[in-house]
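stage 2 :: seqdesign
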C-alpha cells in the first residue's frame, strides 16, 4: 500500500511540474478532448450511459480492453478503429512526458545522494 501512495505522490509531483510546460499543456488538453469526444460519441451512437461511455474510452485507449463493452453499430466500429490509433498516439505522448519527469526526478535524487556520499568519504 505504501508503494502505491509513493507512486501517486511522484505522479502528482511530475504532473504539477509539467503543468508549466507548454507542450505538456497541449497534450493534456488533447487527452481531455479525446476522452470527451469518445465519451460523447459512444453515449450518442451506441446509447451507453455516460459512465459506461467514459469507462470504454479509458479502457480502450489504455489498451486494457476487458471486453465487457464493444461497439455494436457499424459507425461505432469504424470510429473505434480510428479512435484507437489517434488516441493511443496522444496518450503515449502524454505518458512519455510524465514518465521522463518522474525518472529525471529520481535520477536527480540518486545523483545528490551519491555526491553527498562521495563528499563524506573525503
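stage 2 :: out
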Amino acid at each position: 500500500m505504501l508503494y502505491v501512495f509513493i507512486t501517486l505522490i511522484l505522479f502528482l509531483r511530475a504532473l504539477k511540474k509539467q503543468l508549466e510546460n507548454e507542450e505538456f499543456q497541449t497534450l493534456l488538453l488533447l487527452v481531455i478532448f479525446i476522452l470527451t469526444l469518445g465519451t460523447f460519441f459512444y453515449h450518442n451512437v451506441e446509447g451507453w450511459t455516460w459512465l459506461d461511455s467514459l469507462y470504454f474510452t479509458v479502457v480502450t485507449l489504455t489498451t486494457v480492453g476487458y471486453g465487457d463493452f464493444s461497439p455494436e453499430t457499424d459507425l461505432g466500429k469504424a470510429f473505434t478503429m480510428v479512435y484507437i490509433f489517434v488516441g493511443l498516439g496522444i496518450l503515449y505522448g502524454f505518458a512519455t512526458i510524465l514518465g521522463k519527469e518522474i525518472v529525471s526526478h529520481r535520477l536527480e535524487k540518486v545523483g545528490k545522494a551519491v555526491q553527498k556520499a562521495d563528499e563524506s568519504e573525503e
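stage 3 :: structure notes
- The helical segments are 2-18, 22-46, 50-61, 74-121.
- The CA atoms of residues 38 and 57 lie 6 Å apart.
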